[in-house]
């Protein structure tokens, strides 16, 4: 497996990136609209403030990660996806590490991300986060499992929460990790 810049892929591989995005987020209803996944992938081409990296094995695309240059010193990780049959092989972790290396090369000090809990998986799903949102975030625990805990394994910590981001009891969980110091 190697990790390459999205713009190095051929058109069929870029199309496959959109398929992976659609299929991996099917359960949560993400990228369900017509051409939504294709538009998301296209937004990273050509690279600039938005860039993406793909994990490939031969000609096969295994997954991808995007980076968005939102702040001068912090980079947003979005999106991250691994083709469902390829999950659990360490590909997601490798993509996050590669994104962090790119972020550091661009002078960033931190990487941050938002991970929605729209279908359950954490103790905050279905809960009223007001009042004391941050105390509830600090006590978050897995129920059926969620990428929040994947990111936690990679050193990301909770840095905020958007209550009801996707409907009542469906928050967006914000996480971040320092990757360099001044
Ligand atoms: C989340 C996702 C990117 C993880 O990628 P992956 O390649 O399956 O994960 P890895 O194999 O690299 O896992 C790395 C470690 O995290 C753990 N892990 C993976 N998913 C986890 C989860 N949901 N909860 C807890 N731990 C998890 C793995 O067990 C592994 O642990 P180990 O190092 O002790 O063996 C992948 O499941 C995915 O694409 N999901 C659908 C899209 C999605 O939810 N993206 C994130 C949106 S913010």
From TrEMBL:
Task: List the Gene Ontology MF annotations in alphabetical order.
Answer: aminoglycoside 6'-N-acetyltransferase activity
CDD domains membership: NAT_SF
Report if keyword Translocase is assigned.
no
Which Enzyme Commission numbers does its entry carry?
A: 2.3.1.82
Q: What keywords sit in the KW lines? A: Acyltransferase, Transferase
Quick check: keyword Acyltransferase in the entry? yes
The record's section on Pfam families has: Acetyltransf_1
Q: Residue ranges of the N-acetyltransferase domain? A: 4-180
Q: What class of enzyme is it?
A: transferase
PANTHER family listed in its UniProt record:
AMINOALKYLPHOSPHONATE N-ACETYLTRANSFERASE-RELATED-RELATED
User: This protein is called what?
Assistant: Aminoglycoside 6'-N-acetyltransferase I
**What organism is the protein native to?**
Phenylobacterium koreense
Q: What is the lineage of its organism?
A: Bacteria, Pseudomonadati, Pseudomonadota, Alphaproteobacteria, Caulobacterales
């Amino acid at each position: 497996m190697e990790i390459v810049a999205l713009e190095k892929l051929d058109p069929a591989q870029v199309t496959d990136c959109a398929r992976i995005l659609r299929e991996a987020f099917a359960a949560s209803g993400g990228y369900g609209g017509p051409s939504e996944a294709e538009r998301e992938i296209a937004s990273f081409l050509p690279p600039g403030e938005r860039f993406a990296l793909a994990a490939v094995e031969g000609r096969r695309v295994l997954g991808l990660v995007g980076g968005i240059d939102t702040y001068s010193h912090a980079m947003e990780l979005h999106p991250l996806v691994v083709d469902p049959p390829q999950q659990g092989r360490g590909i997601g972790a490798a993509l996050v590490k590669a994104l962090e290396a790119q972020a550091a090369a661009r002078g960033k000090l931190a990487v941050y991300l938002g991970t929605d809990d729209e279908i359950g998986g954490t103790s905050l799903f279905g809960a009223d986060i007001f009042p004391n949102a941050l105390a509830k975030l600090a006590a978050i625990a897995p129920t059926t499992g969620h990428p929040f805990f994947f990111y936690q394994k990679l050193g990301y910590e909770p840095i905020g929460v958007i209550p009801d981001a996707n409907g009542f009891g469906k928050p967006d969980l914000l996480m971040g990790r320092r990757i360099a110091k001044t």
